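Project channel, design review

CF: Before we commit to the Triplophysa tibetana constructs, I'd like one complete example in the thread so the newer folks can see what an input/output pair looks like. Taking Putative serine protease K12H4.7.
RD: sounds good, go ahead.
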Amino acid sequence: MALEPPCLAPERHQLRGAWLLPDVVETILSARAPSTRRRRMYRYESNARVTDATEDQWFIQRLDHFNGADTRVWKQRYFVNDSFYKPGGPVFLMIGGEGPANPAWMQHGTWLLYAQKLGALCLLLEHRFYGKSHPTENLSNANLQFLSSRQALADLAHFCTVTAAVRGMTNSKWVAFGGSYPGSLAAWFRLKYPHLVHAAVATSAPIHATVNFPEYLEVVWRSLAAENPECPLLVKKASDTLVARLSDPKTYDNITKDFRFCSKLQIQSKMDSAYLLETLAGNFMDVVQYNEDNRAFEGAGGTNITIKVLCGIMLDSSLGDPYDRYAALVRMMQEMFSESCTDVQYKNYIQDMSNTSWSGPEAEGGRQWVYQTCTEFGFYQSTDSPNQPFSGFPLQCFLQQCADIYNLSTSLDEIVQQTNEEYGGYDIRTTRIVFPNGSIDPWHALGVTKDITDDLPSVFITGTAHCANMYPARREDLPQLGLARDRIFLLLQKWLAE
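CF: and here is what came back for Putative serine protease K12H4.7:
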């Protein structure tokens, strides 16, 4: 579920469990698209090397904004680009999400074109508990209680208030930007702190929390079918064949070889098979979510692998039956990202995710983001709908991960209901927020795709994926993507004049 990051896009190292938004999130030196877990929520964050001279800057935040007796503080990382600022101009605040904030966004992206035209100061604030913003000594369950969207919004409010005072900009109008989960934060920042933020651009923002999110895979089906109606049917046949073979231990050696697993396949529980199936399906989910995007500038790799490429493989009968084509596709993805094999052992995943050290294998965002899904959002991209191509990872398997990793047993239904009560879900009531979404992006199913009011407009972009409008423009962009960027600018221009 994974964002992601402008869409602060994460890498594709399988962060099982977050299934992000995920915008986001980013072992970007190995340059993968976001992971399964954070996958669907990532956007402009990564650890990619950048050649700019943007320096880390630090801001003092309270650990707990809602407990006056707790005086503990920590340092939050942020970045500044003042090259476009003109006295009296607005302040643009890019919101970090479930991964390291990438300073490449201080030199690239559509928001900088807006800033240049409007004379804006540009800031990027990293989300607490991600990247280098470490509020606590480790990622223990006791410390993760301070990781929430509510605390993150309070971070934004305090940063905004103090920065405006220090820079002599208390009369300046602030505009919040974000993609994926940060897009949701941008909308909620405007909702909860209207006296601090004048307007917001909430790109690919899932503003309605839900425990079960099978619609994600329904959009994956439709996006594949838009390329070729036979494509998702063949994916389903391949998936069904794999599920059937998993019921016979005699097939395990061949499956291990076909998909290049890192160790001999062992299925001892439903969680073992669910984790394997969701990991492999993630190859399709990642590509669809970021289809034909322009993330290469931030260090993302594999951007040449598109829906057209996936369907080309699935339609190639010379590769064998649909199962063989599925295996060939997985091997192709491994080679693209220089991976010798894929680890599909659930016990290894749980071990990695349970590591509470800041140097742990999932400390870049996997452990944190999955915690947020288990305690605030859900967003679980299950196979509980018949109108999608996969099977074998139902909702219960995702809920089991919350118990296995964090020993959480609280009803997630109640928690998600509280989240929607806090922010309003689809019934968000405020003004001056624009909601861009792409038709191919599965996250649009939880976003605003029709105008709520004149001051809460939707910009629905046919044929584009996650956070497409945030990335730098290029010659190959669809005409409607350029028009969407223009419309967002006109809205900002209008709102800043109000």
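RD: helpful, thanks. The domain at 1-222+351-498 is CATH 3.40.50.1820 (Rossmann fold).
CF: Confidence is low (pLDDT under 50) at residues 1-52.
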